[in-house]
Amino acid sequence: MKIRIRGNSIRYRLDKTDLELLVNTGKVESSTHIGAGILHFCLRGKDITDPVIKIEQDNGIHLLLPNPVLEAWYKPDQVGFEQILHNSDGSELTILIEKDFKCVDDD
């Protein structure tokens, strides 16, 4: 899973292995070691109506997406989708979820 953070947007790009894991287990995770710590990202499908993102105490960023949204995205003709989340301070966070199949052999 590739993650890009820029301003108030986070883009997740999932390759075929990530997508298969998300379909089969309901989640996909990625971690980056930074010094003695670990930054952890988790994308998970859940029985909810609205997306939720939160920073966990274990240095994790967890994105929960409604199962129907993910199920529609699993279709071969769907490359990506966008979700806008409203922060408590009135700002917005844009979440982009995309399939990254063209780079699978280059990684």
Q: What is the strand content? A: over 45%
Query: Number of helical runs?
Result: 2
Question: Strand arrangement, largest sheet?
Answer: 1-2-8-7
The end-to-end distance, rounded to whole angstroms, is 11 Å
Outline = globular
SSE ordering:
EEHEEEEHEE
The mean pLDDT is 91
Total number of strands:
8
- What Rg is obtained from the alpha carbons, in whole angstroms? 14 Å
Structural class of the helices, strands and pairings? alpha/beta
Biggest β-sheet description: 4 strands, mixed
Low-confidence stretches: none
Helical content class: 10-25%
Explain this structure.
This protein has 107 residues and is an alpha/beta fold. It has two helices and eight strands. The chain has helices at residues 16-25, 67-73, and strands at 2-6, 9-14, 27-34, 37-46, 52-55, 60-66, 80-86, 92-99. The strands form two sheets. It has a four-stranded mixed sheet with strand order 1-2-8-7. Strands 3-4-6-5 form a four-stranded mixed sheet. The relative contact order is 0.23.
